Amino acid sequence: MSDWDPSSWRAKTALQQPIYADSDSLQGVLQQLGDRPPLVTRWEIDRLKTQLALAANGDAFLLQGGDCSESFAACRADPIEKKLKVLLQMSLVLVYGLKKPIIRVGRIAGQYAKPRSSDTETRDGVTLPSYRGDCVNRSPFTPEDRLTRPQNLLAAYEHSAQTLNYLRALTEGGFADLKHPENWELDFVSLSPQSDEYHQMVRGIGDSLNFLDVLGGVTRAELSRVDFYTSHEALLLAYEEALTRQPSGEAEWYNLGTHFPWIGDRTRMIDGAHVEYFRGIKNPIAVKVGPSTTSDGLIELLDLLNPEREVGRMTLICRFGAERIAESLPLLIAAVQQSNHPVLWSVDPMHGNTMTTENGIKTRHFDQILSEVRESFAIHARHGTIVGGIHLELTGNNVTECIGGAGGLSSGDLSTAYESNVDPRLNYEQAMEIAFLIAKQARVAGPEL
Ligand code: PEP
Ligand code: CO
């Protein structure tokens, strides 16, 4: 691509970028980042793209999830283990229900930069710059914390590396041994109206795993290691540029800071800097698609980002909201069908369903999340297209950030354990329940749900 290089985005308008007072210090940091080793390899990235191509065709399913915004403080053993655990367990439930391989991708090891609707935040008459993720500044509401610091970019790289290092160790070794569903924390299942079916599914999964073991065709070692990939919103283009590399001897450029970067809903303008950056990297990429996406705009975007129409290259993460999906999604499906662009349709039932309680707490209702998932499967089935993935904000901890679910969290419970700095996440039970509901519906309705 002769008209592209990792810095060509600089000639375009880049929204949502922090302003740094000390540009020399920023340059110094970017230089250091550019010298650091990559976090992932092109072989892993290519393998993921091959798997996403299967999911686009309905032969695999993408499970992508994690925090809205990772924090440096949560770069500790326990939260990382719990996040991996919930995603692995969800993936087992989904394998069992959908009867397809599940591609596991975390919003992890780099999800440190957040787009904000306003540059500033005002509390009690005091106005400060908005918190833009630990990559940029800090969340407490003080002038000192809200300063943008170039050093945070290096810290983001380091925390990503530490997180990924531990994830790699966990997924290679005994932690990922999937043979012990009896260790799952499924007390909540008994509270659910579907309790019997869920327990039956857990027993079924256990039996299937034992069967594989007895059969001997699959060795214990194979069962105890799993593929796990990383993703984040590639928002801060200077950071992404520093981690964009040409693997030796190759003509192609890859973002080697993550396997699977995505463009957010606020930065997907066709003539903007983010789209310019993304069009030149070889990674599989995703774009968030929302109520403001037009059919023509979407096809223009696909033409630019995937001119060769490579299967596995493009994932569309749809986030309309339970109330708007029925009017918005069918038009986009029809346009994509007509254009013959190969895409993986994924459903993000989180970002269109955010609301604020009377007490000013940001939350989401489990019923609305579930309703958007159901609608998505139903609409795709009617159009002869396939839901190839789901994108969730979740954590393995017992937070109280989203309302509803079998545990019956109410708005009054939200303050008990609300830890997110940005958007509310599903807790362990709520996340598992989504997996159970999808699996259950698939087993009843067949693979197309
Ligand atoms: C997010 O995924 O956290 C996010 C900001 O989403 P969107 O770009 O869809 O608003
Ligand atoms: Co979010």
Features:
binds phosphoenolpyruvate; eight-stranded parallel β-barrel; 12 helices; 39% helix; alpha/beta; two-stranded antiparallel sheet; 449 residues; TIM Barrel; 14 strands; binds cobalt (II) ion
Blueprint of the fold:
Layout: H1 23-35, H2 42-56, E1 61-66, H3 77-98, E2 102-107, E3 120-123, E4 126-129, H4 151-172, H5 195-215, H6 220-224, E5 229-233, H7 237-242, E6 244-245, E7 254-255, E8 260-263, H8 273-279, E9 285-289, H9 295-305, E10 314-318, H10 325-339, E11 344-347, E12 354-356, E13 362-364, H11 366-383, E14 387-393, H12 428-445
Parallel strand pairs: 1-2, 1-14, 2-5, 5-8, 8-9, 9-10, 10-11, 11-14
Antiparallel strand pairs: 3-4, 6-7, 12-13
Helix pairs in contact: 1-4, 3-4, 3-12, 9-10, 10-11
Summarize the entry for a quick read.
The protein has 449 residues and is of the alpha/beta class. Helix content is 39%, strand content 13%.
Describe this structure in words.
- The protein has 449 residues and is α/β, with parallel strands linked by helices.
- It has one domain: Aldolase class I (TIM Barrel, Alpha-Beta Barrel), CATH 3.20.20.
- It is built from twelve helices and 14 strands.
- The strands form four sheets. Strands 1-2-5-8-9-10-11-14 form an eight-stranded parallel beta barrel, surrounded by five helices.
- α3 crosses α4, α3 packs parallel to α12 and α10 packs parallel to α11.
- The longest helix has 22 residues.
- The model has no long low-confidence stretch (mean pLDDT 93).
- InterPro entries: Aldolase_TIM, DAHP_synth_2.
- GO terms for molecular function: 3-deoxy-7-phosphoheptulonate synthase activity.
